[in-house]
Amino acid sequence: MGAKTGAQYIERLKKAGNNIYLHGERVEDVTTHPGLQGVIKSMANLYDLQFQKPEKMLYTSPTTGEKVGTTFLQPKTIEDIIVRREAIQEWALTSGGMMGRSPDYLNAEVMAMGVSNELFAEADPMFAENARKYYEYARENDISLTHTLIHPQVNRAKAQHEQKDANVALHLVEKTKDGIIVDGIRLLATQGGITDEILVFPSTVKKAGELDDPYSLAFAIPNNTKGLKFISRESFDYNKNDYDHPLGSRFEEGDAIVSFENVFVPWERVFVCGNSSICNRTFRETNAVVHMSHQVVSKNIIKTEFVLGVALSMMDAIGIDGFQHVKDKGTEIMLTLEGLKSHLYRAEHNAKLDKWGTMTPDFEALDAARTWFPRIYPKLTEIIRILGASGLMGIPTQADFDHPEIGQIIHRGLQGKNLEGYERVQLFRLAWDMTMSAFGSRQSHYEYYFFGDPIRMGMSYFDNYQAKECLKNRVTDFLGKTASSATNNFIKI
């Protein structure tokens, strides 16, 4: 089949009838539901963009000769990494980086898992072959994926097998000759129910031991599999127009609890089955974390550019761009942007071939960027709020402007330096939806926990920092030389 169009993406969802619950009701058709149709249209736009810019978004499949999505590409050279990154950023530009789980995120993961699959063979060669075949299947059919990584937050102080209700988390129930039966709950599937399939992958928030083997699973199944339910949180797309909610009305991805009720998974879709050691090592030893981080940092550059663009536009709109503290705030966003670009440049240009022949970016640079961004993004949104001040509260709706009695009053009263009232409010509504609405608040929370608890990430970064011993030795050598020099001077005296 090859790459799909937006219409094909929508048609698949209609036919699938995924079992998703939203606002206390089962959704009959996700493509027409007011809380979901906005993001589905945006997703369809991503797939259409592949055919609008095929020179950037498509490449020839090495196995079928069909045109497939560039974001599935296994890079063999640094140029390939850059080609894939340009496709990633082309997609990110459509949302200003506000879609954190656009398809390229998991396309990168499936690629890494598929080509670096020998880890899975430790348990059974079949699992490695399954991973290889699934990558090809996903690429050749342009499969859209949601995924789930973590167990429910019951008692984080205990391992899964120690929980009061040890069966609440997704676990292995039975192995059969045809596959496995699994049951339990997993969190938190972004775009759950509006994609083709779900990828269940190792929970890496807390390392598992042998007693947690029943919870140590990795597999992929269609989202309409019997017994699979997506229970979505409240939608932050309130079915408003693009003027009132310019981001939430189009890019609200949703997040869902996933319930597996004695779900059957055929053996050919299983990658890890009851092996905590393999689960603990999967993301690092397949380099999946590297390629996924490359996608995330590429997306975050576009997101930071969008935040900066909004900030500069606000400064100009109300004539505050000459003030010292305003310039300083703009500088902070600019420095963040240039820092991210530098990290990405180093990651791409210091890339090396791994043992599977995949050109793999420098993870040290990506790890620094992905650990830093959750700490800085809340500050960027705070800057937008400070710049907007009371202007982010005085934001009438489009209906107010259309009203025959008050429309002209607010159009005149809310004008900016170079903008009429309608255009100035439109800009400030964008800033509000980016930072203060339910959608904007979710964005800040989402970025903060994108790869897990930032403090835990920081501890891991500290523990794995490669230059620690070298730098300490340098100080020891310096102090040794200083002490020696002082001793010699003392002797001379």
Chart the SSEs and their pairings.
Layout: H1 6-16, E1 20-22, E2 25-26, H2 37-52, H3 54-57, E3 58-60, E4 67-69, H4 78-93, H5 104-115, H6 125-141, E5 145-148, E6 171-175, E7 179-190, E8 197-200, E9 217-222, E10 228-232, H7 248-251, E11 255-266, E12 270-273, H8 276-285, H9 288-318, H10 324-349, E13 352-353, E14 359-360, H11 363-388, H12 398-402, H13 407-413, H14 421-435, H15 438-448, H16 454-464, H17 468-492
Parallel strand pairs: 1-10, 5-8
Antiparallel strand pairs: 1-2, 3-4, 6-7, 7-11, 8-9, 9-12, 10-11, 13-14
Helix pairs in contact: 1-2, 4-9, 5-6, 5-9, 9-10, 9-11, 9-14, 10-11, 11-14, 11-15, 11-16, 14-15
Report what the structure shows.
The chain is an alpha+beta fold and 493 residues long. The protein is 50% helix and 14% strand. The protein has 17 helices and 14 strands. The protein has helices at residues 6-16, 37-52, 54-57, 78-93, 104-115, 125-141, 248-251, 276-285, 288-318, 324-349, 363-388, 398-402, 407-413, 421-435, 438-448, 454-464, 468-492, and strands at residues 20-22, 25-26, 58-60, 67-69, 145-148, 171-175, 179-190, 197-200, 217-222, 228-232, 255-266, 270-273, 352-353, 359-360. The protein has a six-stranded mixed β-sheet with strand order 2-1-10-11-7-6, with no helix packed on it. Strand 3 (58-60) and strand 4 (67-69) form a beta hairpin. Helix 9 (288-318) packs antiparallel against helix 10 (324-349), helix 9 (288-318) packs antiparallel against helix 14 and helix 14 runs parallel beside helix 15.
